[in-house]
Amino acid sequence: MAGETVLRIEGVEKAFGAVRALAGVDLEVGEGELVCFLGPSGCGKTTLLRIIAGLERADRGRIRFAGEVIDHRPPHRRGFGMVFQSLALFPHLDVAGNIAYPLRLRGMPERDQRARVRELLELVRLPGLERRRVHELSGGQRQRVALARALAAEPRLLLLDEPLSALDAKLREDMQVEVRLLQQRLGITTILVTHDQREAMTMADRVVVMNAGRIHQVGPPDAVYRRPQDRFVAAFLGRRNELEGVVEDARTVKVGAHRFTVPEGPLPPPGAPVWLVIRPEKVVLSSGGEEGANLLRGRVVFVRDVGESVEVFVDCGELGQQLVVVPSSHQPALATGAPVALRWPEEAIVALTA
Amino acid sequence: MKADRSAPPGHIQRLLLLYPGVLLAALFGLPFLIMLAVSVFRRQVEAFYEPAFTLANYAKLLEPLYLERLLFSLWIAALVATVSILVAVPFAWLLARSAHRTQSLWLVALLAVLSLSEVIVGFAWSLLLSRTAGLSNLLVWLGLLDQPRAWTPGFGAMLAGYLYLVLPYAVLTLYPAASRVDPELAEAARTLGASELRAFLTVVVPVLRPAMTAGWILSFVFTLGVYLIPQILGRPQHWTLSVLITDQAVYQSNLPLAAALAAVLLAASLLLIALAGRAGGSGRRA
Question: For the whole model, what pTM was predicted?
Answer without folding.
Answer: 0.82
